[in-house]
């Protein structure tokens, strides 16, 4: 094992501990409140939202796969892949900040447009991440892996533990996965971002909040994606 591999191995262990760590009190209270709200929403509304987000994500997956450049990822060491990934993250994070500031400054109507725009940026970024680490997103299983990375980044404590287990054991787990639970996917994601995104709709501070929140959301997704692909490449065991 090289010095860099040892360094990454240690970083992965710290990251895994962070991912299974219990959320703070505020997040726990927020999650309980959101759960109560979800219970009050009629089932037909849940189904409508699920279908809409499923369609939105699948459309984004197709578009992202078409526009992703995979040629640059061949013959690179893990260090080179990590450095290239960090450059990609920097670029996408800037895009997300600009998008968040723009929609935040536009009030409620543009604020509502932020959801599909930011989702598109995140999915495109994950396709670029897969390419950097040498995985072919033409394969269905790789697109399925991307969705699990997304869920790992933006889910509740319990769901995050489940996703981490699947990603750590992907070679075995993928044989049992035909698709994801779209109802759970959209609900976990909405619950994760609803509270912080709500402040983006407030006139006067929306632009600042939108930029700040989007920066942090892309940062979290970047950290999650990088370590998820490192796990696969290094075959790290708990």
Structure commentary:
This is ABC transporter-associated protein EcsC. It comes from Domibacillus aminovorans. InterPro entries: EcsC (IPR024787). The structure is a single chain. With 238 residues, the chain is mostly helical. It has one domain (3-234). It is built from ten helices and no strands. It is globular, with a radius of gyration of 18 Å. 32% of the residues are buried.
List keywords for this structure.
about 240 residues, mainly alpha, about 80% helix
Q: Provide the low-confidence segments as ranges.
A: none
The secondary structure category is mainly alpha
- Terminal CA distance reads 17 Å
Radius of gyration: 18 Å
Overall shape: it is: globular
The H-and-E topology, N to C, reads as HHHHHHHHHH
β-strand amount: under 5%
- The helix fraction, in percent, is over 70%
Please, how many domains?
A: 1
Would you tell me the overall average pLDDT?
Answer: 80
The main sheet comes to: none
Number of H/I helices: 10
> Number of DSSP strands?
0
Short description:
This protein is mainly alpha-helical. The protein has helices at residues 3-20, 25-40, 43-67, 78-105, 107-132, 140-153, 157-168, 170-173, 182-198, 206-234.
Question: Topology, pairings included?
Answer:
Blueprint: H1 3-20, H2 25-40, H3 43-67, H4 78-105, H5 107-132, H6 140-153, H7 157-168, H8 170-173, H9 182-198, H10 206-234
Protein name: ABC transporter-associated protein EcsC
InterPro entries: EcsC
Pfam family, one: EcsC
């Amino acid at each position: 094992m090289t010095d860099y591999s040892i360094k990454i191995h240690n970083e992965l262990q710290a990251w895994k501990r962070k991912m299974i760590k219990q959320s703070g009190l505020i997040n726990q209270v927020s999650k309980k409140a959101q759960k109560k709200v979800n219970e009050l929403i009629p089932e037909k509304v849940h189904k409508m939202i699920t279908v809409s987000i499923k369609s939105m994500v699948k459309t984004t997956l197709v578009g992202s796969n078409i526009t992703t450049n995979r040629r640059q990822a061949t013959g690179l060491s893990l260090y080179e892949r990590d450095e290239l990934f960090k450059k990609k993250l920097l670029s996408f994070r800037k895009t997300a900040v600009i998008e968040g500031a723009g929609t935040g400054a536009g009030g409620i109507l543009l604020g509502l447009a932020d959801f599909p725009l930011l989702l598109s940026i995140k999915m495109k970024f994950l396709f670029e991440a897969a390419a950097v680490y040498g995985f072919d997103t033409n394969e269905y299983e790789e697109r399925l892996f991307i969705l699990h990375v997304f869920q790992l980044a933006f889910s509740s404590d319990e769901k995050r533990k489940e996703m981490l287990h699947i990603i750590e054991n992907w070679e075995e787990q993928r044989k049992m996965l035909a698709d994801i639970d779209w109802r759970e996917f959209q609900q976990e994601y909405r619950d994760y971002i609803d509270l912080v995104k709500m402040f983006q709709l407030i006139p006067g501070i929306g632009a600042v909040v939108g930029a700040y929140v989007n920066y942090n959301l892309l940062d979290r997704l970047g950290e999650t994606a990088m370590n998820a692909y490192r796990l696969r490449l290094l075959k790290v065991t708990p």
